[in-house]
Amino acid sequence: MAHTPAGRLGESEDIGDVALWLATDEARFITGQSLLVDGGYTIAGMR
């Protein structure tokens, strides 16, 4: 995946880690957001 800054495809664990983090107290002030978990694909530009 040369098109992503992460240099790899995402795995189910990547999504799960974000979901778990959102359930913690550290994320308590986050409301109504769309979080992109795409390894930087969007910011690098779609090709």
| Count of separate DSSP helical elements | 2
SSE sequence, one letter per element: HH
Number of domains: 1
The outline comes out as elongated
Query: In percent terms, what proportion of residues is strand?
Result: under 5%
Radius of gyration: 13 Å
Give the distance, in angstroms, between the N- and C-terminal Cα atoms: 11 Å
Question: In which range does the helix fraction lie?
Answer: 25-40%
Number of strands: 0
State the oligomer.
single chain
The biggest beta sheet reads:
none
- Contiguous runs where pLDDT drops below 50 for at least 5 residues: none
Query: What's the rounded overall pLDDT mean?
Result: 88
* Backbone structural class: mainly alpha
Written overview of the protein:
The chain has 47 residues and is mostly helical. The protein has one domain. 32% of the residues lie in helices and 0% in strands. The chain is built from two helices and no strands. The protein starts with 11 loop residues before the first helix and ends with a helix. The mean pLDDT is 88. This is SDR family oxidoreductase. It comes from Serratia marcescens.
